[in-house]
Structure formats: structure tokens, C-alpha cells
Amino acid sequence: MTRVTTTPGWTDRLADLLFTTEPVQRIRLRQASLAIALMAICVCIMQYAAWVTGVDQGPLWWWTVLSLGGLLTAYLLIRCGWSKRLADPSLTVGQMVFAIASGAIGYSMAGPVRGATFPILMIILVFGMFQLRASTTLRISLYALGLFGLTMAAMSQWKPAVYPPAVELGHFLMLACTLPAVSILAGRLSRIRHRLAQQKTELAEALAQIQSMATRDELTGLLNRRHMQTLLDQEVQRCQRSGQSFCVALLDIDHFKRINDQHGHGAGDAVLRGFSDVAQAAIRASDVLARWGGEEFVLLMADARMPPAVAGVERVREHVEALRVPMGERMLQTSVSAGLTQHRPGESLEQTLERADRLLYQAKNEGRNRVLYG
Ligand SMILES: Nc1nc2c(ncn2[C@@H]2O[C@H](COP(=O)(O)OP(=O)(O)OP(=O)(O)O)[C@@H](O)[C@H]2O)c(=O)[nH]1
């Protein structure tokens, strides 16, 4: 297989520089950049409205620097990783609280064009709606209402000619009606998000369960025959490509029918589980053990040469011989026979397994509790 590698273009490099390559940080930094972009648009609208109506733009420039500078600082705190130590590493609440305060200052400066701050306020609240809990959005809405209310009251006292009390009361009532509506919408969104997250978790759990059912044997927890067949087929293909080889062993518990007959099916099941546990503990992490059917198991040893493979299966045999399965007052003892072989270049999987099966049969005939290889 040819691996296609592409050199990142300048846009990718710029994106990495601005947003880092860390997925979660990327989301936070994209969001902070969006906040800066939205604030820049709002600032332009305010500046344009002030220019058209002849309002003194000097203080507005200070406000512009403060507003954009504050959000830029938030971006930099996220970018350098400082915000990771906080409970809210995206600084969403901090950015919103700052932007609302900046909106209230803008309102006090804008005079006749102060109405332009209302859409800014709504954009700030919508910005948080997609991430924050409904209760947090409600608290931020109340904070915005309080801060704008205070600003309106102060300005109507200080400059009643530009901020007539009746008009300010009207503005306040308008905000008092719209802000709770935003909170209600945020609450709905929060519930939908919560339900979606819950469904996602449930789906992931169901998928993991289905995958386990499709690939694992219920009694022993080992891989099942179907999945082992897939792994063996893949191993044959891999060896055809690489010229390497693998070893495979068929293992069969000795006189298992006797255990069933003398102690019952439950005892047989307990022995199967006990066998699986000790065999699993005896093999290397890279080896794979599966239940092939009944009391028969397959051990796949990828990349293994014969001498170490023999030692591995022999270790399993010894562990099984030492196994004692408690059954009431008694301790059940068992043993295992195994046929081990190495896959030869050019042969099919069936031919390899047939050879292992013949060796297993021979091991049984020679008295059981032994490993034969060839
Ligand atoms: N308890 C239990 N028994 C099983 C299960 N699957 C297969 N068996 C039993 O395993 C026994 C296998 O018996 P045989 O094939 O005669 O083999 P054996 O008694 O182990 O004899 P040798 O292999 O020659 O040593 C049968 O009695 C099956 O019913 C299972 O999941 N649980």
C-alpha cells in the first residue's frame, strides 16, 4: 500500500499557528477568534453610526481599543495554555462578562447611536447559548440587565438631554423583556444538548456491547471463533506480504466429557472459565487466545518462531496442570493437550490448521497432557 503524504499549505500552517494542533484548544481558540471578529464588526458599526451622527469619536476609540484588547487578551491566555488551569479553560463566561461590561461602557459613550449596543448585547448572549448551562446564561442575562439598567439610570441623571429618563426607561423595559427570552431559548438548547450527549453515550455503550457480543465468547470472555478466523486470515495475508511467519496451536482440554458427566455442566463451565483465565495469564501480550468451540481453543502467536512458541504453549500446559477449580468440597483438576505448528509460505490457513489438528490428535493418542509440534 502506498502512503500518500501531503505537505501542509500556508493556510494549514497559519491555522496551526493561530489555533494550535491540539483539537480541544483549536475549538476554544476558534471560538475566541469568532468573539474578536464579532466585536470588531460591532465596533465598526458603532464607529460608523457615531461618524454619521457627528458624535465625538475620541472616547469611542478608547472604547474600541479596550473592547478588542480585552478579547485579544482572552485569546492569548487560551493560546499560551494559561487558561487550562481554570475550571472554564475556554474563558467563555469571562469573555461574556467582559464584553457585556464593554457594551455598557459603549452605551454610555454612544449618545444618540447607543441603540447600536443592543444587537451587540444579543450577539454576546447568543454566543454563550451554545455552550453554557441555562442557569449560567440566566445569571449572565441578569448581570447584563443590571449593568445596563445602572448605566441607563446614571446617564439619565448625568446627561438627561441626550439620555432622557423616559427613553431610558423604555430601553430598560425592552431589555427586561428580551433578555429573559434569550435565557429561555438557552435553556431549551441546553436541554437538547444534554439529551444529545446522553444519547451519544448510550449509543457508544450499545455499540461496545454489540462489538463485544460479536467478537467475544460469552462464557469465557475470550475471542470467539468468528473473530479468530478473521485474525488468522489477516495474519496469513500479512505473512504473504512480509514473508514472515506465525505459529498457531490447537488446545483441547483432556477428558472434559468426564468432568461434565461426573460433576455436572456447571462444573464443566467453571473448568472452561478457569482454563481461559490461566491460559490467558500464561501467554504473551502479543499472543491471542480464542475459544474455537466446545473445549477446544486456538492460540495465535504472530511473528513467533518455533522454539519460543513451543515454550509458550508448554507454559500454558503447565499452568493448566497446576489449575485447581473449586467445586463444593472438591478441587477439580484438569490438563490440556496441544498441537502446535508454524504457517508455511504458500500454504492455506486450512492446511496449517489441519496440521495442528493432526498433532493434537496425536498428543491425545500418546496419553494427553502434552504439546506436540511440527
Ligand atoms: N460444560 C460445558 N461442556 C461443553 C461445552 N461445550 C462443549 N461441551 C462438552 O465438552 C465435551 C467434549 O467431549 P469430547 O469431545 O468427547 O472430549 P473429551 O471428553 O475432552 O475427551 P478428549 O478430548 O479425548 O480428552 C462434550 O461432552 C460436550 O458436551 C460448554 O460450553 N460447557
Would you kindly provide a brief summary of this structure?
The chain is of the alpha+beta class and 374 residues long.
Small molecules in complex:
guanosine-5'-triphosphate
Determine the mean pLDDT: 91
Whole-number total of structural domains: 2
Strand content: 5-15%
Order of helices and strands: HHHHHHHHEHHEEHEEEHE
Distance separating the two termini: 33 Å
The DSSP helix count reads: 12
Biggest sheet architecture? 5 strands, mixed
Described by the principal axes of the CA atoms, the overall outline is elongated
- Which percent range fits the helix content? 55-70%
* Unreliable stretches covering 5 or more consecutive residues: none
- Count of strand segments: 7
Largest sheet, order of strands side by side? 2-3-1-6-7
Q: Give me the Rg, rounded.
A: 36 Å
Class by SSE composition: alpha+beta
